[in-house]
Design brief:
mainly alpha, single chain
Length: about 120
């Protein structure tokens, strides 16, 4: 019975990892296509750069969420040991930092600020 459980959890983990990689890859392609469309439409270079970066960051964020979920499932259900728990903690810490940095980049301001930093000096 345990072998079946481990096999199923391994499959779920691989699906989550593949999903995370696919989200990042497909998101990068979609962001690039959107960027190229904006180039053809002669959109403002600053606007298209910000849009491209935001689209790419969003796909990376979503992909990271899938990868964190896969690590959690693997550690909690299959490979539960102090070593694997320590590795999971480090991975989640790094990915959380990346997510925080990307989210701040997308929003254009720190989470505790009400207004975007870019908009404060303009007007």
């Amino acid at each position: 019975m345990w072998d079946v459980f481990v096999t199923v959890m391994n499959g779920i983990t691989k699906i989550l990892e593949a999903g995370g990689a696919a989200v990042i890859f497909i998101g990068a392609i979609a962001a690039t296509i959107g960027y190229l469309r904006m180039v053809v439409a002669r959109t403002d270079p600053d606007q298209r750069f910000r849009q491209y970066r935001t689209s790419l960051a969003r796909s990376i964020l979503l992909g990271l969420e899938f990868l964190v979920a896969a690590d959690i499932v693997r550690t909690v259900t299959i490979d539960f040991s102090l070593d694997s728990l320590a590795v999971l903690a480090v991975l989640v810490l790094i990915r959380t930092f990346l997510s925080f940095a990307l989210e701040t980049e997308i929003a254009g301001h720190w989470p505790w600020q009400r207004e975007p930093a870019r908009g404060q000096g303009e007007q």
